[in-house]
Abortive infection protein
Amino acid sequence: MNKATGADEAAAVTSAAVPGLGAVFAAVMLVATLLPVTRGVESPAIWVAAAFAVVTVVAFLASRHGSLDRQLAAVVACASSIVVVVLSGYALNQGIPVSIDVPGIQSSFSLVFAAFVTGGLAVGVAVADYFGIGLAGLKERTQRTTILSALGFGGLLAPQVGALVIALPVMASVGELSRVQSVVVSQLGMALGTGVLVWWYLSVTGRDLSYIDLGRPTGRNLLLIVGGVLTIFGALGAITLLFQSTGVESADHGTTQQAAENPEILLVLVPASILVIGPFEELLYRNIIQKSLYESFSRGGAILVGGVIFAIIHTQAYWTAGPGQVVASLAVIFGLALVLGTLYERTENLLVPALVHGVYNAVLFANLYFTYSA
């Protein structure tokens, strides 16, 4: 049992501050969904989201004042908040942002996006309330999540620095790099930069390389690798059908856009997926970030929080699309992260999610190559 969990269980009474905080998020969520309704927005998704936002507010207030069993209220608040997140995400995807101007500055923000974000926060608070996590425990978990999110964002910068370190001497000797050569350098930079970032984190946290979970794959591991790949592609097919049937549009990955102009870069990315992308992304996001989250969260909670971090980090890969399309694509990434996180948690062997991730990317890149080179 970790210290945070022990502290939570030692508390006889859960602080009313936690459902109170949830009520604040739910109130913002309610305002963000009701304002579009009062402005005449004719979207059933927004109307239903507003109704569930009301349910969320009532559930949190009932928990805070003890008029409803805490765990039952938390389940209701969590479920209704998830509905708001899904419906507001759908509304964004359908082009219903409903922006309002910010007084005093030349800017505006989307009410629907505000509902989406606060809905997600309300889900987290509801889960905390269900498990009796007090305000101190919630604060500790938030701090750890923030620190590890920053480490995740460092995983975006470090490969660029690594690529620059490699590219400068190469360009000094051969001149300007071709597109294919640039991709090779970027992949080498990812390995270098991510490796250095992981080494730095292990050093400052007093850990050594034994923290990295690498082992000889067992027969069970091999079965899980095959099962993981099949699960991911099965889920991808189901999500694609769901998106098509509901009119949801997702964004193209930045690499897809580059490959349309230069299909030959995919011949580099197919092997790089298995040798670099899969192993080093899983090293950082599963072996380091998810495993570090175990110190504050249950294993299931760490998989979920780590999945959210992994999805948010990928926003930059889709930033040229609209917010609704980005949200849809990140939902797919989040699903991928849940599968990879579960495989890592079950096996405690980095090789398993690394191979599943690598094979998944390699198949996608190979399919793109045959599509664009035809």
About this structure: The radius of gyration is 22 Å. The domain at 3-133 is CATH 1.20.120 (Four Helix Bundle (Hemerythrin (Met), subunit A)). The first helix runs from residue 3 to 10. The chain has two domains: 3-133, 141-373.
